[in-house]
Amino acid sequence: MNISTPLSAENGLTYLRKGHGFPLVFVHGFLGGAALWEQQLVSFSDTFDVIVPELSGYGGNTDQLSLDTIEGYADQILTFLDRLGIGRFHLVGHSMGGMIAQQMAAMAPVRIDRLVCYGTGPQGVMPNRFETIDTSKDRVRNDGAAATAHRIAATWFTEGKAAQGFPICAMMGENVSVDTALAGLTAMEGWDGRAALDQITQPTLILWGDRDRSYGWSQPEALWRGIKGSSLGVLPGCGHNAHMEKPEIFNAMIKEFLPENV
């Protein structure tokens, strides 16, 4: 994978940006960063203005104070887009980033033209997760962030540590501090978006890898049934990071869903 260097800007966050057209924003998840969207940056930049911000505490922002609420991260991304002069946009959120995307839709519904909730659900405390959030917190404290990143990133792929995308995921996670990792887990633990699902009115696509160990079927199903008129796409033979395991299928599904002209 060809990894681009995130660009620093006066808005206070590092990010990747490429292309021209209607803005398309990708939000990464827990222990992630902009580099994990590299294949999407390349694929979508021929028709969209692709913007991939990094949350505070992650990627190039590891020196920044991390946030411990999903609402805080949603506000941070909306402010970031304000400073770029972005009004309306398409939004793709993955994992914890999918929770952030749902919160953004609740906070600024008129700004989001189309929404993609990928590998995520409406509950921060996830049923059937590979381990409880409390267990993850204990292991972060006891093992450190780097060891935790390697262990958790392996669960994101059907081939575990042998997956092609594992090294970059592990590397991004290694740079996250213990405080940031704990804050991210706290943010998920304290968030529940189920009551707001019927208020999401923009066209929405739910994407899920059928071997996702972080989000069992009950979570994408709750989004699909709770968001009126939403569409569902299931990626066969994929884990949590389906966009890295089978990018051609993942990208094609989103391209089919998104209009080039708004």
Strand-helix topology:
Elements: E1 15-18, E2 22-27, H1 38-44, E3 48-53, H2 70-84, E4 89-94, H3 96-107, E5 112-118, H4 133-143, H5 145-154, H6 166-174, H7 178-189, E6 204-209, H8 218-226, E7 231-235, H9 242-245, H10 247-257
Parallel strand pairs: 2-3, 2-4, 4-5, 5-6, 6-7
Antiparallel strand pairs: 1-3
Helix pairs in contact: 2-3, 4-5, 4-7, 5-6
Describe this protein's structure.
The protein starts with 14 loop residues before the first strand and ends in a 5-residue tail after the last helix. It has a single domain (15-257), classed as Rossmann fold (3-Layer(aba) Sandwich). With 262 residues, it is an alpha/beta fold. The protein has a 7-stranded mixed sheet, sandwiched between helices. The longest helix is centred in the N-terminal third of the chain and has 15 residues, at 70-84. The chain is 38% helix and 15% strand. Strand 4, helix 3 and strand 5 form a beta-alpha-beta unit. It is globular. This is Alpha/beta hydrolase. One of its GO terms (molecular function) is hydrolase activity. Keywords: Hydrolase. It comes from Parasulfitobacter algicola. Residues 23-247 form the AB hydrolase-1 domain.
